[in-house]
Structure formats: C-alpha cells, structure tokens
Amino acid sequence: MHGTSYSIGRSPKRLEDHPLLTGAGRFAADIAFPGQVTMRVVRSPIAFGRILDIDTRAALDCPGVLAVWTAADLTELPPIDFRMTRVDGLEPYRQPVLARDFVRYVGEPVAVVFAEDAYAAEDAADLVFCEIDDLAPRLDPLDEPGAFAPGKDAGLRTEPAVLRKGYGDVEAAFAAAHAVVELDVAIGRHSGVPMETRGAVAILDPDTDILTLHGAAKVVHYNRDAIARMLGREPDLLQLSESHVGGGFGIRGEIYPEDVLVCAAALRLRRPVRWIEDRREHLMAANHSRDQRHRMRAAVDARGFILGLDVCFFTDQGAYIRTHGATVSDLAAALLPGPYIVPAYRVEGRIRLTNKTPCGTYRAPGRYETTFARERLIDAIARRLGLDPVAVRRVNLIPETSMPFDRGIDALGTHVVYDSGKYRDLLDRTLDHLGYPALKADLAARRAGGEAVGLGLAVFVEKSGLGPRDLARVNLGPDGAIRIVTGACSIGQGVETAMAQICAETLQVPIARMAVIHGQTREIPIGFGAFASRVTVMTGSAVKLASEDLLGRARVVAGRLLQAEPALLTYRDGAFHHSETAASVDLAGIAAQSGEGLTGEGLFETSHMNYPYGVHVAQVRIDRETCGVTVERYLVAYDIGRAVNPMLVEGQIVGAAVQGIGGALLEEFVYDADGQPLATSFADYLMPTSREAPPIEVLLREDAPSPLNPLGVKGAGEGGLTAAGAAIASAVDDALGHPGLVTRLPITPLALHEALTASAKR
Amino acid sequence: MNDRLAITLNVNGQSYPVTVEPRKSLADALREDCGLTGTHLGCEHGVCGACTVIVDGRPVRSCLMFAVQAEGLAVCTVEGLAEGEALHPLQRHFWEQHGLQCGFCTPGFLMLAAGAFEADPTIDEAEMIDVLSSNLCRCTGYQNIAKAVSLALQDMRAGV
C-alpha cells in the first residue's frame, strides 16, 4: 500500500477552496445575463382561505414591470410531482406552482411579477392585492382530520396517508411483558436553513432551443426530467447547471414552484429570468421539517430488554405534500428501532396536513426525530426498572455476531439490512474515551456543590449510500490532466476533493491536476445527486471503478509503448514500469500517445443502503434562574467504515452536531393562533453562533467497513446530527435530577421553565 | 425613488463611478454596479454577517448601509484581501484548517476578522472569538473557523 499525501485516508487541503476564499465563487445570485428579467413572488399573507380575486392592475402599471401572472395565466402547468416515496392517494395534495382556489399557508406563491430589476419588481409585488375569504386555519396535527378543500371536494382529508410497518408478534410480547413503559414525546418544527438562500436563473438559447436552469442543486438529473415533463419539453432541451451551492441539508435543490416559474417565464418572455429568494421568503417558503409527535409503548422484561414496541406517530407535513412524498414518515417508521434488537415491532405513521409551510427532509430525516423518541424511551425504561440507562442500552444492542442484521422492514423501497457494526464495542470505546465513571463522579460532585450539570448519552444507527446506481467517467487528457465526470452534486461537503482522492488512490497521482465535474446534466447521462449521505458511497465507488477501468486502458497503451506484455508491467507512482528493461512511461506520456486521451468508465449499482452508527454524549450546565442550557462538552463517536478524508469527515460531523444542538435548544418555526409564522427572520429563528457551539470531540472509528461497496465506506453527512436531541435531553434531565423531564424539543428556556413548574406542581 | 445619484465608490483602492438610487444598499451596489460578487447576502437584515466588508477600517454589514453613505470612504471587500497571488493569513489558515465547507459565509467571516484586527491590532484571541459570534455559519460548527482565525491572528501580529 502506498501512502501519498493525497490518497484515501489522508487529509489534503480541499480542491474547491481557492475561489471560495478569494471571492471568486459563483453562487446562484452571482449568475447574471444581459437583458435579464427579475422575478418577484407575491405570497399569501393568510394561512388558509378561498381566493376570491387577485388584482394585478396596479402592479402592471408600475414602471419597469413586464408581466404579472397568477394561476389563471399558467393553467397548463401541473402541480409539482413526488421525487421519492410515492404513496397511493397523495397526488391531490401536491402543490401547484401558483395557488389555485385556496391559499394554504402564509408564504404560498399566489402571483409572480416580472420587472427590469429587483427593486422595481419588489415595489410592484407590494401592489398586487389578494382578496381572500379567510377560513379557520388547521394548526394542530393531532386534531381530528377534516376537509382539505372545504366546499369543493369533500373526499380530500387532512390525513392523506397512514403508513404501517412491523414484524413479529407484538401482542404476544405485551402479554409476556414484565412491565409496559409508555411515553409521549414531540420534536419541534425546524429546518436546514442554508446560508445561501435559493436562487434560479433560466436562459433560453434561441438557436438551439435549449433552456438552461442555473442555480440547480442536489438532484439535477431527476429535476431536469421532472421540470421538462411539467413544461412539456423534451428532456434534451432542458439543461440543469449547478454552480457553487451555499449549503444543502436536504432542503436545497428540491423542485419548488419558483424553479418551474423561471423556466416557464424564460420560454414565454424570451429573456433570461432570474429569481433570488430573500431570507424572509426562505423561512416561510422553503421546506420545513421534523415536527413529529410520537406515542410509544414498550413491553420489556426485567432486564429492560424490549420484547415488543408499539408506536403511533404523527408528522405535521404542512400545507401540501411536496417532492419527498412520504419520505420522512417512511424513514421514521422503518428506522425507529435503531441499534436495538426489538423482536416485535408495530408502527403507524400518520401524515397530517396543516396550514403551515410544507415539509421535506432535513439532514438525518426521520432519524433525528426517532432517535430522540427511542432514546427517551430507553431512559424511561431504565427509570421505571431502576436500572442504569447504559446497561439497558447494552442489553438491547444488536450484537456483532448478528451482522448482517435483517430488520424485516423496508425503507425508501429498500430492504433494511444493517450491513455491519460493532455497536457494543463502540459504546465501550466511548465510555473509555470519556473515563465514564470518573466523569460521572465529577459531575455528581459538582451537583452536590449546587451546580446543575449533567451527562446524557444516546446511541443511534444512521443510513447512507442510497442507490440505485451512479456513473462516473475518468478522462486522461492529452496534456495529462485528469477530468473526473460525475453525476453527483456538491452542496459544499467537499465532493471534489473526496472524488479526486479516490481516483488518486488508484492512479497514484496528485489531486492537484484533477478537475471534478458535478451537477451538470449535459456532461453525463446518469446521475442521482447528493442526498441520503450517498455521494462518497455511490459516486465514490463509481469513480473507483472508472479509475480502474482507465488504468486498464492505460496499461494496454503502456504495453505497446514499452513493447511488453501489459499484464507484466508494474504500476507505481503514476507510471508503468518494465521489470526487465527498467523502462517506464507515466500517465502523461501515455496520454500524449493516445490522441484524444483515454477515458475509463464505472457504473456502481446497489439495491441496499448501508448503516453507519454512533454514540453522542452531551454534558450540559443549566442556569436555574434563566433555564438557559449551556453545552459544556460534546462527543460524537462514529463508525464510518472507512474515512476517505478524515478532515472532511470530522468537518461534517462537527457541523452536523452544531445543527443538532440548534434543533435541541434553539431552533423552531413557531406560528400564532391565526397561522402567522413568527420566525421569519434570523432574529426569530435562532441558530447557533460560535457562542452556543461547544467544542465538539470526534471519536472516528473504522471498525466495521461496509461489505456493500468496493471502498468499504459509509456516509459521513448526517451522523453528527442524529442523536443530538436525544443526548442533550438526557443530559438536561440528569443536570436537574429530573429523569423524564424533557419530552419535547427544542428545550428553550421557556419550555424548560414550564416543564419544571409543571413538574413541581405534580 | 428614481432620482438616481452619481457617486464614486472607492473599493479595494480602485475608483468605481456608479449611478444608484439612494435606497440601494452598499451590498447591492458592490455586487451589481461594481461587479464584486464576493460579498454575499445571507439575510439582508443585518444578522448573518455574510455581507461584511471593511469600511474605513471597521467591519460593516453592507446590507445595512446605503451605497451613497459609502461615498468618500475606503471600502475593502474579500476580493481585495489577498495581495496578488499571495493569500492573506486568514485565507491561508481557513484553507489549511478546513474553515469552510460551502463557502457562502466565508467572505463575511474573513472580512469580519480582518476588520476586527484592523480596528484593533491588539485584539486578543478571546476577544476575536467573541467577535466571530456576530456572524452565522451553517456548515462548520465554527470549530475550524475559530482555529483558523486564532492561527491567522498570530501571523497577523507577527506581520507574516
């Protein structure tokens, strides 16, 4: 094994950083074309109501305004379809690109204004008047389902689907139980909130009739096909192009109404059309997420071993079912049992619609929520039986000898089989790393001294590497430069560097002369994009195969050049060596003799996800006066199978952990009784700053490589976040000596104060 | 609204004669009229700090300042931070310490730290970390930003 500074397992500086450091980045708002028109969206000021009239006359009279459209101007555009987890019966709840008949949340697009510049467009948009007959908004997903379209279609209800999954004999488990532990917990509404708002710029080339959408992200190939279908265009006549993307987190890059509107407008107005979201719009228009309520019952034996688990949960999906369909509920239902054996399980996931911003996925979707719920339940079991919570976890963890572990359930249309894992070993390593007994004693001493300090621990399983396939091409140009063409997308996670390192591992050449192409539909026919922690697993494996294919082709050329049997040549440090003559030729020399250069291709396919796992530990201090929670220390132990670039992996974990802490303590989209969103600025939607972000320790392990891909890798993107709510909740309980106190996230000072007051009254 | 004013902006030592509406923000003028798109807009209400630039030696939210207010003042943006090919110590350490992921907030953090140092060259590490809490990053968890800024502070003090 060679060990150059750029191969797998090393942490070279990122290929992508130089332009981002010098102001040369090209984000969506940096893309401008001569003659461009600015689009501004007029949004509903009302949570729920019938549209009586939309008066656009005053806006049309404004200087610089070219057009104003409402749904009546776009009758040919269908609603936005599901990209994932299509469940029968969801179709009528899809979102139209502009509101039709009803407005269903504050922020819903009702009209669009096109003007010569952004200032003129915004002035005119203010003059569009929506006459709306208010209806009582539906805000509590636990209310009895009612009519989705009152007076119009009585058949449509605000519970569009119920997912049911399970295995084993749940009734028998409860009949045999030593005890039954029940728990009701909730996770607030929060979301990814990337620092770059969304943006979409569409331009039509009149000569080729090709329409290009800039500002695309995440899943450009799927989105090209879906938008082309909506527009009634051949997919070949639509290109999606990703430039720099300022954060993804699940929400960026899905198809939203605005993406379709700029495309439709560029075709109709025959001018480039540009839309850049402002932050207020973003906080009420881009996907929200989480927002689940879990009612759980566990049948346990005297050791705390879970014999059976019976769960009903509600997902507040907001006003429409967007591109993710039933994804979040599906993942929650399938992955709730996490790292534990749970021989019998029954779950019912009720999808409910309310008059709030529609939801999609946010980093660790379904796992952040269910890890909070499940780990709270484990703590409750320990409390009920008077056992140590760590011991209860240990008794329930799936042993290494049971791997691969077939859960007997499906998620995202794939069978859930945990591919590899040493859960108990990682738990032990985590406790060793912490010096657990001494740390517990130290915190107990501080509590005895009057401080409210505590420790919380949570164990989780993540999932990553969703298929079905990915294609990559590695081209060795005549000048020796290497171009890696992928169907992946980059949302800032370091795709270029990671792909280059995987290529470098095979080709044994530095990454500096490599260019990594991503997010360009015109460059490659197949691409499944960047989500579900899939890029390093899927695209990375394809890049490895493509690199090997390229090397095989290069070997044939080298054999010819060195007049040797290709199989007898030795490849070392980027060159083929003849063992007898000592002659050699490097890749650049081979390229120079290969005309157009050489291209290797790799297609990697899989029908299973893989399952990284980890442990989060939080140590918190609480100010009893203000009920403010400070995270003093935070540890993420995570087994990634194999780390391509440990620096990037740790970067992912640390960043995700801070997002998780935000969701646990600060972030929430709150609505008033009329359905008005109260968090529409960064002054109201609070995200962690460097003040709230504790130092995050990462215990990165490579103990259980995935047998499902040639690299052995598992995904790094989400595990830093997954158990944050669970670990912090447990730590808060511990700090206050109130086991079971926290039943809801986020644990804001007000919420904590109320919980303490309620508990004192009991 | 349409009474446009002709002003000259001095950005990174260069003069930019521009004609802007009085209500145009400095950020918009830098991006649209000067073509300097390295200054990013993350919230347009002064919280996230992505648009931070240095005006007369102090870090400023360019989304909260009108372009016309910057006339006659020296504005420095991220495009002016490196000296030719030589990266500024902050840029260098952000790169080495993995202080950026998506890179959208990065220009704001760089200009915030550079501006804080320019305003007070005696600023210590703890004060600098405190200053960093005025900007938002959603990717890094701040750990590597803090590391990079601390290392850069040593270099800036030493004049490296």
Spell out the blueprint of helices and strands.
The complex is a heterodimer of chains A (762) and B (160).
Chain A: H1 17-21, E1 37-43, E2 49-55, H2 57-60, E3 65-70, E4 102-103, E5 109-115, H3 118-125, E6 129-134, E7 147-149, E8 153-157, E9 161-167, H4 170-175, E10 179-190, E11 199-205, E12 210-214, H5 220-231, E13 238-241, H6 257-269, E14 273-276, H7 279-285, E15 289-300, E16 306-316, H8 327-335, E17 345-352, H9 367-385, H10 389-396, E18 405-411, E19 414-418, H11 423-434, H12 436-448, E20 452-461, E21 469-476, E22 482-486, H13 495-507, E23 514-517, H14 535-562, E24 570-572, E25 575-577, E26 584-586, H15 587-592, E27 598-605, E28 613-622, E29 629-639, H16 646-665, E30 696-701, H17 724-736, E31 744-745, H18 749-761
Parallel strand pairs in A: 1-14, 10-31, 12-13, 16-17, 22-23, 29-30
Antiparallel strand pairs in A: 1-5, 2-4, 2-6, 3-5, 7-8, 9-17, 10-15, 11-12, 11-14, 15-16, 18-19, 20-28, 21-22, 21-27, 24-25, 25-26, 28-29
Chain B: E1 5-11, E2 14-20, H1 26-33, E3 52-55, E4 58-61, E5 74-76, H2 89-96, H3 106-119, H4 125-132, H5 143-158
Parallel strand pairs in B: 1-5
Antiparallel strand pairs in B: 1-2, 3-4, 3-5
Helix pairs in contact in B: 2-5, 4-5
What is the compact description of this entry?
The complex is a heterodimer of chains A (762) and B (160). Chain A is α+β, with helices and mostly antiparallel strands.
Give an overview in words.
The complex is a heterodimer of chains A (762) and B (160). Chain A folds into three domains: 17-25 and 466-605, Aldehyde Oxidoreductase, domain 4 (2-Layer Sandwich), CATH 3.30.365.10; 32-138 and 197-245 and 252-285, Aldehyde oxidase/xanthine dehydrogenase, a/b hammerhead (Aldehyde Oxidoreductase, domain 3, Alpha-Beta Complex); 289-410 and 421-464 and 609-761, Aldehyde oxidase/xanthine dehydrogenase, molybdopterin binding domain (Aldehyde Oxidoreductase, domain 4), CATH 3.30.365. Helices cover 27% and strands 26% of the residues of chain A. Chain A contains 18 helices and 31 strands. In chain A, a hairpin with a 3-residue loop joins strand 7 and strand 8. The radius of gyration of chain A is 27 Å and the shape is globular. The longest helix of chain B is centred in the C-terminal third of the chain and has 16 residues, at 143-158. In chain B, strand 1 and strand 2 form a beta hairpin. In chain B, helix 4 crosses helix 5 (143-158). Chain B has 160 residues and is an alpha+beta fold. In chain B, strands 2-1-5-3-4 form a five-stranded mixed β-sheet, sandwiched between helices. At the A-B interface, helix 1, helix 3 and helix 16 of A face helix 1, helix 2, helix 3, helix 4 and helix 5 of B.
